[in-house]
Amino acid sequence: QSALTQPPSASGSPGQSVTISCTGTSSDIGDYNYVSWYQHHPGKAPKLMIYEVKKRPSGVPDRFSASKSGNTASLTVSGLQAEDDAVYYCSSYSGSSDNNYVVFGGGTKLTVL
Amino acid sequence: QLQLQESGPGLVEPSETLSLTCTVSGDSISNNNYYWGWIRQSPGKGLEWIGSLYSGYTFYNPSLKSRVTISADTSKNHFSLKATSVTAADTAMYFCARQRCTSIYCPFDYWGQGTQVIVSS
Fold first, then answer.
1. A35 vs B55, more confident
2. Are B107 and A51 inside 8 Å of each other by CB?
């Protein structure tokens, strides 16, 4: 069971937009619309930012948007703010005839310059 | 407000059994409205789903399935993780979390802050 692939780092200046990619396979991202994104500030509980590819939970700013194309999902943070500086993880449901599980990415450290 | 709190030994010896508990407040795990899961983060690595629990049913990461058990004690409103025969590779921050609906594909919407476990003699 391979983890989803994310770039280790991304950066942008305040006010700019940054997009983080998350690449999986046809057994996970490519076949299911169950992609989620989490924001993690070290020492705190991870926070759900996006679910089912592009839905935002209540309270998440609309500066956060997401999409999927083929086996790759993407998270875009627009109008970067200092508090967006965090690690972002993607996850997906992965299903097959004999295995159903959740897979995460390795995380992308977003630095707001 | 739903809160989850992990607890357990911070140090476990190699080959021993790791035991952690997640105490839930603000909701009852016996309501059967959600899945409840464990996730870990090893040093320098990403998140790894360990497994989830729902109404007595358990679902595990295939790579860990032979060594882990997740169970619930509804009288104490907590659920637990046990991992046998631990090695240094099990050193990680362990999180418990709620999945926001009743399926393994549901996202984790509430998380604990995590508890650090080190496997070392």
1. A35
2. yes
